[in-house]
Design brief:
Blueprint (H helix, E strand, L loop, with lengths): L1 H20 L6 E2 L9 E5 L14 E2 L5 H4 L7 E6 L2 H13 L3 E7 L15
Parallel strand pairs: 1-5, 2-3, 2-4, 4-5
Length: about 120
């Protein structure tokens, strides 16, 4: 019985670690959004983390994303996040809801120097 509970706890721990730390494949890192395209810039950073100004169309922090996801139009999205964990959780949520995420941006990210490539993604 104890081994069974330990196994279940390990499985749940692995699932949570995957959701937070493994990157979402197929979405590129871009610092500049194409202005001509029909892309909406969605900022999922906290309200307090607004040090760098970007051309943001919508601002919904990740903590409020579930509540206000119905306000996001079903167009191509460019997601701005503060860190990798927030980005992974936000991208997985948006993709699960059926949104098309074309690109993302992490402020102060090393992908800026690599020309849009983060860990081969």
């Amino acid at each position: 019985m104890v081994i069974y509970l330990l196994g279940v706890a390990i499985v749940f721990l692995c699932i949570e670690l995957y959701r937070r730390y493994f990157p979402v494949k197929g979405i590129s890192c871009k610092t500049n959004v194409d202005e001509g395209k029909d892309t909406i810039v969605l900022d999922i950073r906290d309200y307090n983390d607004k040090g760098v100004s970007t051309k943001v169309a919508m601002q919904i922090p990740y903590a409020y994303l579930k509540r206000y996801s119905s306000e996001i139009p079903y167009k191509s999205l460019h997601v701005v996040a503060a860190n990798r964990i927030e980005l992974n959780l936000g991208l997985r949520f948006l993709l699960k809801k059926g949104y098309h995420v074309s690109s993302f941006e992490i402020l102060n990210c090393p992908c800026i120097e690599k020309g849009g490539v983060v860990n081969g993604i």
